[in-house]
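Expect sequence, tokenised fold; for instance:
***
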Amino acid sequence: MEWNVYLSGEIHTDWRQQIEMGCQEKNLPVSFSSAVTTHDASDAAGDVLGAEEKSFWRDHKSAKVNAIRIKKLIENADIAVVRFGDKYKQWNAAFDAGYCAALGIPYITLHDESIIHPLKEVDASGMAWATTPEQVVELLSYIISQK
């Protein structure tokens, strides 16, 4: 069986690539999916529908267009990894974690200790909390490979 892992959250570091490479090195049967991770492209997702005078409506349209992809990929996931960085607030990642919880899709949170308190509810619904991409790879290896 190939596992479908959805990678959600912070887009300013290479954590996704670290997880993908680590799983590849372990020859894990995994495919990965993610939201659009290019900030400008994500922000402009709804622009094809017409220009907006107010940024709220531009963001609103783009969020809905992006949600088509995100919802489908999460619904098809066997497991998700939800990354929270310390520089920006990833409200979208918290929403993704809530959506996973509502659908019964297990998820692993990935963040450092400095933001444990604000993420307590998100962590409480997750199946595991990791602080490094390497820990995520080890968790995936255990989950997928153990017989």
In short: The first strand starts at residue 3 and ends at 9. Helices lie at 15-25, 39-43, 55-76, 91-103, 120-125, 133-145. DSSP finds six helices and five strands in the chain.
